[in-house]
Design a protein that fits this description.
By secondary structure, the chain is α/β, with parallel strands linked by helices. The protein has helices at residues 41-84, 91-94, 117-133, 146-153, 170-180, 194-203, 216-224, 226-233, 244-252, 266-276, 280-284, 306-316, 335-344, 374-377, 399-403, 418-426, 436-448, 450-466, 470-481, and strands at 109-113, 138-143, 161-164, 182-188, 206-212, 238-241, 260-262, 295-301, 324-329, 349-351, 365-367, 383-386, 408-410, 431-432. It has a 7-stranded parallel beta sheet with strand order 3-2-1-4-5-6-7, sandwiched between helices. β8, α12 and β9 form a beta-alpha-beta unit. It is globular, with a radius of gyration of 24 Å.
Length: 493
């Protein structure tokens, strides 16, 4: 896979930027400024004025729409948080007032933003290499969701601190940038926040989108505001897209071709990291009772999926009476709901946090009510179903079970992982089902056919191993934007 390294931009006269000795004004390279007496200057300004005015109006409309949306959503968000016991996160962070301890001395930093769990896991592949490459910078990780924040906190101590990202209002963004003082902003996946990017551009902060993707749904929406989005993308120095299709979509939305690099997906690297990380024995010990039993894991399920999964499991138990089902709801606030659905279908249910390593539970179904254990539990599985795919939610990551060589099932809705899903199906490395009845049939077939399970699992593991390397390509793009200090450590996998 070819790596396009950004060309150095022409420096302007200016003061020295903190952190790496690069002149502050050269860090964005807007080109030479018109000099006094230049006869062409009035004409240029006159020609540019309508475009500038239009952009100002578009930002005003965007901020107005954001205000209306925010005010309209406050009651709903508050009600859902109260009803589901879902934390809102630190409100000071959201409004651009993070704690001073985030960056107490105003040191130069690298700010990584990951919306939720999946993005935080992808970001995890970059944290240690960035800390080794830029030891003088604070490494700060923000998320939008509370579940993402739980994963981000596990990145410490390699990451110096975590916080919630600010709302994309200019005062909130300005307050956060004042505290964080970034030399580089790293946005994971597709995070195009116009006011944040605009503020970074004005302050000379380098920006990069890594593991970039533009799903079908996002693309349809972005095309409606393509002219405004083109201006927002002008604030991005580099986009590292996961594949050629998503790279072309970034270009169609207005990204300059010289700012695009196709790196592959960080999630191929993250899958191997997640499998090897942490104390696997501590995770597996409570499940010793499952040794020798067929284990069906339903991963990252959403509302509307537990029912079909349980009915498919019930069908499979007709020929595998000792089979065990582990359900891992995608969102922590749904743990109790998933437990109730399973109990409602007549299953004996236990929660992971109630398991005793010394005694086997009298349960057919285990609800995984923890964060961060699923990736290592896949090695217990006989068959894995990846949720978010039976309902129209775009699917979830299928790579983590694949790295253990486990056969993977997923539904028809894999729009957010279309490239990976298509590749797995094309290589006979996964089984895509299209209905509840197909899920039951596929599960029963795989539990009865060890040879087919092994073939699917082996193909999946080979595919993951053959597609790693996005981390190194992404780090190369980052180093080109923010040259490391002399003598810094070069990360080696």
């Amino acid at each position: 896979m070819e790596v396009v390294v950004p060309k150095p931009r022409t420096a302007r006269p200016g003061g020295a930027a903190r952190g790496n000795g690069v002149p502050a004004s050269s860090r964005r390279g807007f080109g030479a400024q018109p000099q006094e007496g230049n006869a062409a200057q009035p004409q240029v300004k006159e020609a540019a004025q309508p475009q500038v005015t239009l952009m100002v109006h578009m930002y005003l409309l965007y901020n107005l729409a954001l205000c209306v949306y925010f005010v309209a959503c406050i009651p709903l968000v508050g009600y859902r948080a109260w009803r589901r016991g879902k934390p809102l996160g630190r409100l000071g962070d959201r409004f651009g007032r993070p704690p001073a301890a985030l960056n107490p001395h105003g040191s130069p930093s690298i700010w990584i933003h990951a919306v939720s769990v999946g993005e935080a896991l992808a970001a995890k592949t970059l944290v240690a290499p960035l800390k080794a490459t830029y030891p003088a910078h604070r490494l700060l990780v923000s998320t939008t969701t509370a579940s993402g924040q739980l994963v981000a906190r596990q990145l410490q101590p390699a990451a110096d601190a975590t916080f919630y990202a600010p709302l994309d209002f200019p005062p909130c963004v300005a307050g956060t940038l004042d505290c964080v003082a970034p030399d580089l902003l790293v946005l994971v996946d597709t995070e195009v926040w116009p006011n944040l990017l605009r503020a970074c551009r004005r302050r000379g902060v380098r920006t990069i989108i890594v593991n970039g993707r533009v799903s079908d749904r996002s693309y349809r929406g972005y095309r409606l505001v393509r002219r405004f989005l083109r201006r927002a993308l002008d604030g991005v120095d580099r986009v590292c897209a996961q594949n050629e299709l998503w790279g072309r979509r970034f270009l169609a939305l207005g990204l300059s071709p010289e700012r695009l690099t196709v790196t592959g997906s960080l999630k191929f690297d993250a899958a191997g990291d997640a499998a090897a990380a942490g104390d696997a024995d501590a995770v597996l010990r409570p499940f010793q009772f499952a040794a020798g039993r067929p284990v069906f894991i339903a991963a990252s399920t959403l509302r509307g999926e537990e029912g079909p999964v349980l009915r498919a499991f019930s069908r499979a138990r007709q020929s595998n009476a000792d089979a065990l089902l582990i359900i891992a709801p995608r969102h922590p606030e749904r743990f109790a709901e998933a437990e109730a659905v399973a109990a409602g279908q007549g299953f004996a249910v236990a929660r992971r946090t109630d398991l005793d390593a010394e005694a086997a539970p009298a349960a057919d179904v285990i609800v995984l009510d923890t964060i961060g254990e699923l990736a290592r539990l896949f090695q217990l599985a006989t068959v894995v179903f990846v949720g978010g795919s039976l309902v129209p939610a775009g699917g979830h990551n299928i790579l983590e079970p694949a790295v253990f060589g486990r056969p993977v099932l997923f539904g028809p809705h894999m729009e957010n992982f279309a490239g990976v899903a298509d590749l797995f199906v094309e290589r006979d490395a996964a089984w895509q089902i299209h209905s509840e009845s197909e899920l039951g049939e596929a599960l029963a077939t795989l539990l009865a056919d060890a040879e087919r399970r092994e073939a699917l699992g082996a193909a999946a593991r080979e595919l993951v191993d053959g597609n790693r390397g996005a981390r190194q390509r992404t780090l190369a793009a980052i180093r080109a934007l923010l040259p490391p200090a002399a003598g810094s450590t070069e990360w080696a996998t």
